[in-house]
Amino acid sequence: MGLLLWGAASEAQLPVEGLQLKTLFTTPEERALIDRNRYRQEPRVRKPEPAVPQQTPEPEPEPVAMITVEAEYHISGISINADGEDVAWVNGKQYEDGDRIDNVVRLRISVRDGRVRLVAPGGKVYTGSAGDTVVVKYQKRAEQ
Q1: Under a CB-based contact definition with an 8 Å cutoff, are residues 67 and 143 in contact?
Q2: CA atoms of 107 and 113, how far apart (whole Å)
Q3: pTM for the full model?
Q4: Does residue 11 carry a pLDDT above 60?
Q5: Coil, helix or strand for 8?
Q6: Mode of pairing for the β-strands spanning 105-110 and 66-79
Q7: Which pLDDT score, from 0 to 100, does residue 60 have?
Q8: DSSP letters along 82-137, please?
Q9: What is the mean pLDDT of residues 79-89?
Q10: What average pLDDT does range 79-93 have in this prediction?
Q11: Can you list the pairs that 58-65 forms with residues at least 24 positions away whose Cβ atoms lie under 8 Å?
Q12: Which of the 8 DSSP states describes residue 20?
């Protein structure tokens, strides 16, 4: 069946004279521009890339003057409570687990081994027991 239709279509001749294909969606001016661009012989010239304005590099920040601080902490006692806060006495003052000494060094009390851990700025950990003096070193900005 398909062969029959194909054969009939191939024998039929369409009138070529007067057959003018029309373009969709373009005006005659647009079509002329498209044809002119399509069939031109000169090579295409790319438009130059727009110049990117040079960014001035940001000035490097002034180096911050740092000083090393050495602080001594004498641990006079540790109290580990089953029903309350764990407490340590450092430099004659009472601190609970998690408090900051001098608003800088964090005090942690280890229930497992009964020792005090002093965490310096920057994360370095110093440990000590009751009766120990621990020297904690850390860096801080120099006062201007």
Answers
A1: no
A2: 15
A3: 0.54
A4: no
A5: helix
A6: unpaired
A7: 83
A8: SSS--EEEETTEEEETT-EETTTEEEEEETTTTEEEEE-TTS-EEEE-TT-EEEEE
A9: 85
A10: 88
A11: 64/141, 64/142, 65/141, 65/142
A12: -
